[in-house]
Amino acid sequence: MIHEWVLLWLPIVLAAGLGGRLLGRARGTALGVLCGLFWIVLVQAREGAVAWQGGWNVAALLTGALAITAVGAWGGDVRVMIGGGRGDAPPAARVSSGQLLSSGGSSISALSALTRAMETFDDWLEAHRNDPDPWPGFGEFARGVLYDCCRTSHVRFYRILSEGAELAPIREGHPFVEDEMPSAREGIVGHVATTGRSYLEGDATHGALVDDLARRSGRPLAWCFAVTQGARKIGLVTVGAFDGHERQDLQHYRAVELLIAHFWMTLLEVCRGRSAATHDPVSGALTREAFFTHAERSLDAAKRDGEPCALAVLSIEPLRQFNDAGDWDAADEVVRTVSHVVRERLRGDDRFGRFDEGRMMLLLRRVDSSLASLILEQLLERVRAACAEARTSGTEVQVRCGVVGSGTGQPRFSDMLRQAVALCQEARLSGSVLASDLRSREEALVGDGAI
């Protein structure tokens, strides 16, 4: 019989504990007394006079009622310790209403900063998803998010190019400024880059040895965390200091870390998706449509700035023989070799694309036909040497080129492309390596003079 009473007692004691947690110690005790009396009445109504027959039954009833009362009072004490209820708590255990409002306001402010970051990132991504290089802009955006959420200063972002070996800035370095890059294997930065565990100054959970490692790192560092993709570390964020920021709990900083990592990974996936749509998978060069778009923009910008441009078409022979013989691996290797050599020599504002199966396109900024011819002659020598070392099934690979410059006029991109294709064909028919519009004009002038 008593085990059936326990089924009635359990929900009552739980209700007393939860009620005491909400009401405080004094009211919780009163609630416990009422719940104890309710327990006695409920058993009396169920069992009748039998409930008071026998010493064990009477002891069970009274013990259950006292336990319910004690749980109600205990629930009130827990509320005082955690939330600072009024009740009968001692003054040392109470928290003033001003402190409660301040704590609540701080939490609301932190949550609002995280919400703003998520809202503004959607707008930023929509505006910058088609930028040629969105990463410097992302660094500035993420720096603003960290300041808004945590009042950080001296924030730097790094790519981990080879895990545990090398760090690189998220932006391209300035050619006249030497940035001292931290090692990915030394100090607290190396610890974070290797383990993926964050470092936060003043956090007692990471141990004294990590604090000592941070002090010996040679420069002040208040916060450092890694951006991970699965088990691989792909990025690192360092914070030099917090500017007058009221320190939040660890979960707030962890939430900010995850938010920055989420933004980073989202932009990375956007760049990968865009690259898959605009880059040839074999050569890594721009597809024809993407090259046309980028080249026309570059040509228009050069016209506005009064700068010359040169457009070259490179023909790779004999790719068709490889394909006809079924040696597609050799054909792809030749294309990759040529593309690798060309891209090594490109500047940041040059454009490189694949025209069709055997031809590639190259737009060079700030060079005229004469300088472009010299550059391309050296480039073709490097290409021939690289192809000679590559696997070509014993077939000699020849690369020919036709180049045309913008000159002093403002030719359209389509006209320059047609002329470059014709000059590349002229080089093949004449057996030469390079044909330029400059030489064609000189030959035409010589012919007119002979007449």
Largest pleated sheet: 5 strands, antiparallel
Q: What's the number of extended β-strand segments?
A: 10
Strand content: 5-15%
How are helices and strands ordered from N to C?
HHHHHEEHEHEEHHEHHEEHEHEH
Radius of gyration in whole Å, from Cα? 37 Å
Helix and strand content put the structural class at alpha+beta
Q: Order the strands across the largest sheet as they lie in space.
A: 2-1-5-4-3
Global shape: elongated
Low-confidence stretches: 79-105, 173-178, 442-451
Number of helices: 14
Mean pLDDT: 79
End-to-end CA span: 128 Å
Structural description of this entry:
The structure is a single chain. With 451 residues, the chain is an alpha+beta fold. The protein is 58% helix and 15% strand. It contains 14 helices and ten strands. It has helices spanning 2-23, 25-47, 55-83, 97-128, 135-150, 187-195, 208-215, 250-278, 288-305, 319-324, 328-344, 369-389, 413-430, 437-450; strands spanning 152-162, 166-169, 199-200, 223-229, 232-242, 309-317, 351-354, 359-365, 398-405, 434-436. The strands form two sheets. It has a five-stranded antiparallel beta sheet with strand order 2-1-5-4-3, with helices on both faces. Strands 7-8-6-9-10 form a five-stranded mixed beta sheet, with helices on both faces. A hairpin with a 2-residue loop joins strand 4 (223-229) and strand 5 (232-242). It is elongated and about 120 Å long. The N and C termini lie far apart (128 Å). Mean pLDDT is 79; it is low at 79-105, 173-178 and 442-451.
